[in-house]
UniProtKB/TrEMBL annotation:
UniProtKB keywords: Copper, Metal-binding, Oxidoreductase
Domain named Plastocyanin-like: residues: 83-191, 209-296, 350-454
Signal peptide: none
Protein name: Copper-containing nitrite reductase
Pfam families linked: Cu-oxidase (PF00394), Cu-oxidase_2 (PF07731), Cu-oxidase_3 (PF07732)
CDD domains for this protein: CuRO_1_CumA_like, CuRO_D2_2dMcoN_like
InterPro entries reported in the protein's UniProt record: Cu-oxidase-like_N, Cu-oxidase_2nd, Cu-oxidase_C, Cu-oxidase_fam, Cu_oxidase_Cu_BS, Cupredoxin
Gene Ontology molecular function terms on file: copper ion binding; oxidoreductase activity
């Protein structure tokens, strides 16, 4: 009797697992061919009839006299040696994960030649958070075909907005990011908004299932800093889940979110900063006269960054305050407010891994026209946190749970929603193209939590699906 019951239970489990795999499996969910640039029938009549359609491929960076910064990145399957001498399988750019830190200056023309050495599934590079022309966005099946082994693709864009960004493959991204195809991209400002003596960028990463790395190293990271120096520490969360980061040993300012400086940020202390998947937070602090500053994750010991020498500071209480950007810093008029006129408004309701009850290509795109102002209300009804990320644009966060932000304006490329949260965001449709809007918990994206923001009249010659092998999430 008992063994029968166990058998039935095991069978049920296997069946559930099979259903899970068939609905969530990376390739299983894709039809042969999907045109992500296709509009709904209604919009098709409006926009395609005019004959002034433009292909995403033709939306490139116009020539200019901007100084050129060139890089070569080669994606390959390899092994990396960790500090403990342990050899770990990884997919790397130029032999390391993260790949090389790319540092450029605001206004530079960035030219990156990507070579795929031996990754059979193909790779691309998406420049996370960077506003660039459609053809350079690195989304396979939308802005380009995937780059197969032995092939190359050259990206070219002007880095218009200074700040902290990162790059990663957007082909089967939940898998490829986890295997290591990531790196830092820092655009240094022509003129600093804040003074600092040291400028570090640190990427938090989970490699495979077990390695928690800070700039590619296990066991945390030690950085040099001497008493009295001011440090800008750029934190990049390349992992799927939110990281609660504490700062111990100094008071600090959050000077930038997703690469965009805040207005007159307050000096604070003893607060946990929630950094969602894909998000960047830059913090600024002055080294104390003696002892270290430690920046660390509440949950993951290996994501500890120690600066300076001497005694370790006392850690934050688990119950310390949570940093709240909605009331932080100083307001600054920019003409963008919840009650201004919007040409389009959209509602997105998020479930555990769906948007408006639908998944991926079944989710109707947000349709915009160049020049329009767009308001999107996003409500998270059920499930784990969702860092919702928009390609190609900088949006402003208008309200949280119905209340307008009262501190510094917050401009971002992602907004982190916990269950129950409602945000309104606004952006101007000022970058014609076909742009993804998706959860940056890439497991959620792979399960279908991805949609498009499509400009009327923009088309793509590329296709997502098993026929082309382009799998953008
Ligand atoms: Cu999500």
């Amino acid at each position: 009797m008992r063994s029968n019951l166990i058998q039935v239970r095991n069978m049920a489990r296997t069946l559930l697992l099979l259903i899970f795999i068939s609905t969530m499996g990376a390739c299983g969910k894709y039809p042969d061919e999907i045109n992500m640039g296709a509009h709904t029938h209604h919009q098709k009549e409006n926009s395609m009839g005019g004959g002034n359609a433009v292909s995403c491929s033709n939306l490139t960076e116009p020539p200019s006299n901007a100084p050129v910064k060139s890089f070569d990145l080669t994606a390959a399957k390899t092994f990396v040696r960790l500090k403990s001498e342990k050899m770990v399988k990884a997919w790397t750019f130029n032999g390391t994960t993260p790949g090389p830190e790319l540092r450029v200056r605001e206004g530079d023309r960035v030219v990156v030649k990507l070579t795929n050495k031996n990754i059979e599934e193909g790779v691309t590079i998406h420049w996370h958070g960077v506003v660039l022309p459609c053809s350079q966005d690195g989304v396979p099946g939308v802005t380009q075909d995937v780059v197969r082994p032995g092939e190359q693709y050259t990206y070219e864009f002007v880095a218009k907005h200074p700040g902290t960004y990162w790059y990663h493959s957007h082909q089967l991204s939940s898998e490829q990011v986890k295997r290591g195809l990531i790196g830092r991209l820092i655009v240094e400002p022509k003129e600093k908004t804040f003074h600092y003596d040291r400028d570090y960028a640190v990427i938090l990463q989970r490699l495979g299932e077990n390695e928690y790395l800070t700039n590619g190293q296990e066991g945390g990271l030690k950085l040099e800093a001497t008493p009295g120096e001011t440090v800008r520490l750029r934190l990049i969360n390349a992992y799927n889940r939110v990281q609660w980061m504490g700062v111990a040993g100094a008071s600090f300012q959050v000077v930038s979110i997703d690469g965009h400086d805040l207005n007159e940020p307050d000096v604070i202390q003893n607060e946990w900063i929630p950094i969602g998947g894909g998000q960047r937070y830059d913090i600024l602090f002055t080294m104390p006269d003696n002892g270290q500053v430690r920046v660390y994750s509440k949950k993951q010991k290996d994501w500890t960054i120690s600066l300076g020498k001497g005694r370790a500071p006392k850690k934050l209480s688990k119950h310390a305050k949570i940093f709240d950007f909605t009331t932080y810093g100083t307001p600054k008029e920019d003409g963008i407010s919840p009650d201004m006129h919007f040409d389009r408004t959209y509602d997105l309701v998020l479930g555990p891994a769906d948007i408006n009850g639908k998944r991926f290509h079944d989710i109707p795109p947000i349709i915009v026209k160049e020049g329009e102002w767009v308001k999107v209300r996003i409500e998270h009804k059920l499930g784990a946190e969702h860092p919702m990320h928009l390609h190609g644009h900088i949006f402003k966060i208008l309200t949280k749970n119905g209340k307008p932000l009262s501190g510094s304006p917050i401009y971002a490329d992602s907004v982190l929603l916990f269950q129950g949260d409602v945000y309104e965001i606004a952006f101007q449709a000022n970058n014609p193209g076909l742009w993804m809007e998706h959860c940056h918990n890439l497991n959620h994206a792979a399960a279908g939590m991805s949609m498009m923001v499509n400009y009327e009249g923009v088309t793509t010659p590329f296709r997502v699906g098993t026929k082309s092998g382009n799998f953008p999430d």
